[in-house]
Amino acid sequence: MNHAPPLMLLLAATLGGAALPAAQAAPAARQAPAASATAPVLVTAAQWTQMRAEGARSPLFAKEQQRAEQRVRAMMKAGIDVPVPKDKGGGYTHEQHKRNYQAIQAAGALYRLTGDKAYATFARDLLLGYAKLYPGLGAHPQGRGQIPGRLFWQTLNDSVWLVSAAQGYDAIRDTLSDADRTTIDDNVFRAMADFLSGTPENFDKIHNHATWAVAAVGMTGYVLRDTSYVDKAMQGSKRDGSAGFLKQVDQLFSPDGYYEEGPYYQRYALAPFILFANAIERNEPQRGIFKRRDGVLLKAVDALVQSSYGGYFFPINDAILDKGLDTEELVAGIDIAYAQTGDARLLSVAKTQKRVLLSPEGLQVAQALADNKAKPFAFVPTLLRDGPDGTEGALAILRMGGENGQALVMKNTKQGMGHGHFDKLNWLFYDNGQRVVTDYGAARFLNIEAKAGGIYLPENSSWARQTIAHNTLVVNEQSHFGGDWKKGQPLAPTPLLFAVSDDTQIASARMEGAYDGVSFTRTQALLSHPSLGEPVVLDLLRVTGSKAARYDLPLHFNGHIMDVGFKTQSAVAARPVLGKANGYQHVWIDAASEPTSEARSLTWLLDGRFYTYRFASTAPSRALIGESGANDPSFNLRREPMLLQRVDGQAVTTFYGVLEPHGQYDGTAETVRGANSRIDRLTHYRGKDADVLVLDLAGGKQLAVGIADDPAKGGSHEVSGGGHSWRWDGGWKRFDTGTRTGKDGK
C-alpha cells in the first residue's frame, strides 16, 4: 500500500485534562461558541505555554522547532497551493497534499510555540483552500482498490491527512472567526470524517488502514467536541464493539506487543495506535487505554525496537529495507512511551533518532537527554509470540555479542494478512553490523513515480512473496499455500522450543499445512565456543511427506563468493533459468553440482569478514548457485546471489548446515587473517527419535548438539554413530569434548 507518514509534531498530553463535553450536532444556525469549545484539546494551552518557556533550553527540542520553522517558512513564501487531485503516489498533486498536511500540523505547533499569528493565518488559509476543494471531490481519478480516496488515490492517505491536519487545526481553532471555524469544521473535518466512517468496508477492518481511519475520525471528534465520531472510532461504524480502535488493539497485537503484519507494518501502524491512544488518554483518562491488555501498546514500542538490527527493522513480509529506528512513527512511539513509563532505555533510542516531537512528550524526552538520563537499550534474545492470544506462531530472535554482534531471526509467525509472504520457518542472520543471510522484503520503490508510481511492482507477487525468494523449504516448485494468503492466514507454525544460555541459544518450530501431506520441523541454534572466532548458526530441517517429491532449500546471502568448496558445472556460454513459475522464472543458474550426500561448503566475503556455510542432506542433493533478476525486462529486481540445495524423489529427508563467521580482510592495510574456516567437518547422525549434529573444530575439539524430533516433549533420547554415543533427557542437549576420541556424551 502507498504510505505517506506524517510529520508528527503535535500530540495529546499524557497527564490531566478535562473530560470530553457532550456531543454537539451541527446546527443550521450557530451561536458563538464558548472558549472552552474551541480551546486546544490535544495539547492544552498551559502545556503549549510551558513548551514555549522551556523548549529553547533543551537543544534537541529547539533544533526540532527550528527545522519546522524552516520548512513552514519556505511553504509560506511559496504561497497557498491546494491542487485538484489527479496524480498517483509520487506525483505532484499527491506530494503537494502531503506537504500541506505536514505544514498545517507544523504551523499550528509553531503558532503556539512562538506566538506568531502568521503561522495560524497560514494554516487557516490552507484549510480554507481545502474547504473549497473537498466538498466537490469524488473518487480520485487514479483511485486504487474498492474504496479510492478523494485527496489521494487510496483512502489510507486521506486518513493520514486527517490525523495530521486535526492536530494542527486543534492548535489554531480558537484563533478563527466563527464563520471560518464553521466553514472548516463542516467542509473539511466533518466531511472527511463522514467519508471515512461511512465506508465500513475500510473503517471496520481489523487492519492498519482501518487503524489510520479510526484514529483520524476519533481525533476529529475530540477536536470538534463530537462524541458520535469518538464512539464510531472506538466501537466501529455500528458502535457495537464489533470493530473500531479497541477491537484493533485487542486483535492486531500479541500479548508480547508483536503486530500481526510484521515489524515494517508495526512501524507504520504504530503511529495511529499511539497518537490516538494519547488523545484518548488526554481526553478520557478513565478509559486507561495505555493499561489495556497489560499495557500492550507500550509493549509494542519495545517489541518494535527489539525487531531491529543495526538501526533497521527485520524486513519480513512486504517490507522496504531502508526503514528503521529513525522513522517518524517510532519517534512518536518512543516519546509517548517514555512519557508513560519513564523507561530510560528508550532515551538511548531517542538519542540515535536525533528527533523529538514538538509536544509535551517530546520536551520531556529532550530534557531527559539534556540531563544525561539515557541508559543503553539492551538487545536481547526474545521470543515474540504472534496472534491475539499468543498462540499463533512466534518470531524467535537469538542474539550474541551485543547490538552489532550476531542476530539470528526465525520467522515462525502467522501469515500477516495480505502483506504476508509465503515463507514459513524462514530465517535471517546478521553479523558485524551487516545483513548476511537476507530476506528480499518487498519489490517496491516507495513513491518513486518512475517505478509504477511507487506501488508494489508486479515482481512483488511473482518473486518477493514466493517461497523460493526466502530461506525455507519449497516442495515441487510450488509456494506455501499455493501462493494464496487467505489459505495461509488460519495456519501458523507451532513453536516447539526456545531456550537461552551463555553459550547456546536454540529455537524450534513445526509447520503443517503449507503443503498437503507435508510436515517440516526446523531447529536452529546460535552457538559460541572458545575454538571459534565468532558464534555460529546450526540449522536442522527435517521434512516428512506422504509421497516422493522435489525438495528445494534456498539460502539467500549477501557478499562476494570467495570459494566454492565442491565441483560444479558452470554456465558460461548461456545462463539458464531455474524454472517457469512461482518465482523460479526469476532465478538464473550460474553453476550446479552432481547429487551427493557429502557435506559441501561455500565461502563468501562481506565487509571484511568471511562466512563459510557447510551444508548437506540425508538424501543425495544437488547444489546450485544462482542469482535473482531473470525475466525482469524493467530492471525492477535487485541482483542477489543464492545457493539452492535440491533433493529429488524423496518423501522424507533432512537438511542440515552450519554458518560460520570468521577472519578479517583489511583492504586498507592489505592484510588477511583467519580466511580459513575453523570447522573441519560437519556430520549428522540419526537415532530413533532424534538427530545429532557434530562439529569437528580446529585444534581437535568437538561440539555436538542433540535435537529430539519433538523438542517440546520430554523423554530420553540416544543417538550413536562414528564411534560416539550421545544420551540425553529433554528436547535438546549440547555436548562439548576436548578431543575426537569417541567419548560418551552423557
Automatic annotation (TrEMBL):
Domain (Heparinase II/III-like C-terminal) ranges: 385-643
UniProt superkingdom: Bacteria
Subcellular location, record wording: Periplasm
InterPro entries, alphabetized: Alg_lyase, Alginate_lyase_dom, Chondroitin_lyas, Hepar_II_III_C
Alphabetically ordered keywords of this record: Lyase, Periplasm, Signal
Domain Alginate lyase: 71-307
GO molecular function: lyase activity
Signal sequence interval, chain numbering: 1-25
SUPFAM superfamilies from the UniProt entry: Chondroitin AC/alginate lyase (SSF48230)
GO cellular-component term (any): periplasmic space
PANTHER family for the chain: HEPARIN-SULFATE LYASE
Protein name per Swiss-Prot or TrEMBL: Alginate lyase
Organism: Stenotrophomonas rhizophila
